[in-house]
Design brief:
17 strands, alpha+beta, elongated, 40% helix
């Protein structure tokens, strides 16, 4: 959501910046709504002042025994007109709300202008891509061959875009969750939260998924409950309708949740493997900051996510998204893309975003410093997407005999150094 007065003052400049992300703001409609609202408010305030004056005059005349029936009729008529104008203002305010809730966040000035993801800009690369003496396999072949990943039984249980993990495959997923949570809480200063996995409509509106992206979500029939698409939603809404102490900011939280997405807009995309699933696990990082510190904290949050990849020995790159590739609520986003040798490509494993006050305004999250109260800034990023990290480990640590080495930092969690085929589960 946006600050209406800021929009009014900077309408043309905002419209021009929004156009770089492919959004056409109807400035004429905005100005028409604004003019109608102002005209109705002005007339309403004028009539109220006149009614108050006439009511006082009527009281004086009645004390003098003067017949005031005509003046009283005028006051009643003015009251009816005021009520009609109040309804007009209410209707225009609703139009404004519908208009503004559909407008995405304005890209930060540092975000490169582009027309598609091809215009995203690489910031840096870290780590070494492994070299193999054999053609590396993709995880959708390795997993079933090792007996640790099962698509057929998942499809039988539920349907397409689901997976069953077996044995060390399941334990690797769990180990990654625990490793990420331990690193972020013990070393990076985050407080762990375990939120509900069901969220209500108000929560999804607060973070920007509703109303625009309802088709990407799973709704529970007969309840105002939705399956959380990411821990960003419940964790950000922990402070909905609250005022935080600015001196305590930034607040840094991390949470593990399963995530559920219909992937309505990605038909035919990433149909093989577990890159794009209806259900997947993720460890999310969320920050609440003062406005002046949010971009510094974006760099910190992104570095915290990168640290997980570094410690797992995975090659990756950081990319800043161009204006056309930004998410609806984001003012600036870095994507971390991990190298997948089985696919000979970098694939996104984390998106780290600064939403500035966009979500906080929708969710009414404020920060108070003395007598001054302002909307907080919110940030989040995957720290990391667990399933995609699982994929990266299996593909990067595969051996010529089909086994997979376990990264050293994970060995205490798995109590294993190598994942080998288990015939009874194949």
């Amino acid at each position: 959501m946006h600050d209406l007065s800021h929009f009014r003052t900077n309408l043309d400049a905002i419209a021009e910046r929004l156009s770089t992300r492919g959004m056409t703001l109807d400035t004429a409609h905005f100005r028409d709504l604004d003019a109608r609202r102002r005209a109705a408010l002005t007339e309403m305030e004028t009539l109220r002042a006149k009614r108050n004056t006439e009511s006082q005059e009527i009281a004086k005349l009645r004390k003098q025994g003067v017949d005031t029936s005509a003046q009283q009729a005028e006051v009643r008529a003015a009251g009816e007109t005021i009520s009609r104008l109040e309804e007009q203002v209410k209707a225009v305010d609703e139009e404004f709300r519908n208009l503004m809730t559909a407008v995405p966040n304005v890209p930060h000035e540092s975000v490169p202008v582009g027309k598609s993801e091809a215009d995203n800009v690489e910031i840096h690369r870290k780590g070494t891509q492994p070299e193999f003496s054999f053609p590396p396999k993709a995880h959708w072949d390795l997993g079933p061959e090792l007996g640790i990943l099962d698509f057929e039984r998942a499809a039988k249980i539920t349907g397409a875009r689901f997976a069953v993990y077996w044995g060390l495959g399941a334990r690797l997923e769990r180990a990654l969750i625990n490793f990420m949570l331990d690193a972020h809480t013990r070393e990076h200063g985050y407080t762990e939260v375990l939120p509900p996995f069901l969220v209500n409509s108000a929560s999804l509106f607060g973070t920007g998924q509703l109303p625009k992206f309802a088709a990407d979500l799973f709704k529970c029939e007969n309840f105002d409950f939705w399956l959380a698409p990411t821990a960003e939603v419940p964790v950000t809404n922990l402070y909905r309708d609250e005022t935080l102490d600015a001196e305590q900011l930034p607040i840094s939280l991390c949470a593990y949740t399963p995530c559920f997405r219909s992937e309505a807009g990605s038909y035919g995309k990433d149909v093989r493997g577990i890159i794009r699933q209806h259900q997947f696990q993720k460890v999310e990082l969320v920050k609440f900051t003062r406005p002046g510190q949010s971009y510094e904290q974006l760099e910190q949050l992104t570095s915290d996510a990168e640290n997980i990849l570094e410690r797992l020995g995975l090659a990756f790159r950081r990319v800043v998204l161009c204006t056309a590739d930004l998410g609806f609520s984001s003012a600036k986003t870095y994507d971390l893309e991990v190298w997948l040798p089985g696919q000979n490509a970098f694939r996104e494993i984390s998106s780290c975003s600064n939403f500035e006050a966009f979500q906080a305004r929708r969710a009414s999250i404020r920060a108070r410093n003395g007598k001054k109260s302002e909307f907080a800034h919110t940030l989040n990023g995957s720290g990391l997407a667990v399933g995609r990290t699982w994929v990266a480990i299996v593909e990067n640590y595969q051996q010529a005999d089909g086994s997979v080495l376990v990264p050293e930092v994970l060995r205490p969690y798995l109590n294993a150094e190598v994942i080998t085929a288990r015939a009874e589960l194949r």
